């Protein structure tokens, strides 16, 4: 047995016995409209919410909100992009994306977060390398809080999952708030069923 195998064997032998996870109760949901609570939470984190009636409205919104965008990568059929993406797209090839467009699976009213898996992003780097992220979200797909997220089947079955709340931001240096330091500079949630 090699040193590595002996080391791993000792670690495996020292593992505690498996035991069931405790049941976490569902806490009462706060009062108020989930969409309004989501909007308030996202706005507090620097994000923006807008309403749209159709994919045409989304295309017009992107054109008016980001008039200088040269590279638009869309993972949403019907939303125009200048760079098509597919599961074969190399993640690093999205390094110059001005606007990324994705559809969120669901949102969390408590935190103003949107949940994504590899299915929604298509290429995970779209959520981090894009300068601006536009998220289409059906308001009927809001859950009240994080406790409901962990009970969802899609949370347990995804290979990759992330909750995104607002644009990237830091205030580490001299207490000055900087957006886009480690990720997207703006996050716009478009309410669209």
Automatic annotation (TrEMBL):
Residues 1-30 are annotated as: Disordered. Gene3D superfamilies: NagB/RpiA/CoA transferase-like. InterPro entries: FTHF_cligase-like_sf, LUD_dom, NagB/RpiA_transferase-like. Residues 93-190 form the LUD domain. It comes from the Bacteria. PANTHER family: LACTATE UTILIZATION PROTEIN C (PTHR43682:SF1). This is LUD domain-containing protein. It comes from Caballeronia novacaledonica. The lineage of its organism: Bacteria, Pseudomonadati, Pseudomonadota, Betaproteobacteria, Burkholderiales.
């Amino acid at each position: 047995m090699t040193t590595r195998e002996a080391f791993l064997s000792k670690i495996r032998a020292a593992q505690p016995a498996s035991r069931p996870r405790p049941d976490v109760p569902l806490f009462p949901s706060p009062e108020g409209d989930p969409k309004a609570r989501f909007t308030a939470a996202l706005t507090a984190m620097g994000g923006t919410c807008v309403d749209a009636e159709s994919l045409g409205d989304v295309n017009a919104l992107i054109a008016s909100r980001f008039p200088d965008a040269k590279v638009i990568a869309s993972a949403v059929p019907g939303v125009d992009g200048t760079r098509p993406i597919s599961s074969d797209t190399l993640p690093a090839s999205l390094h110059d994306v001005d606007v990324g467009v994705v559809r969120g699976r669901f949102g969390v009213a408590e935190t103003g977060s949107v949940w994504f898996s590899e299915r929604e992003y298509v290429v995970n780097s779209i959520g981090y390398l894009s300068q601006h992220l536009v998220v289409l979200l059906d308001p009927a797909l809001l859950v009240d809080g994080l406790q409901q997220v962990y009970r969802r089947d899609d949370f347990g079955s995804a290979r990759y999952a992330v909750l995104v709340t607002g644009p990237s931001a830091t205030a580490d240096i001299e207490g000055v708030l900087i957006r886009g330091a480690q990720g997207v500079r703006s996050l716009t949630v478009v309410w669209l069923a």
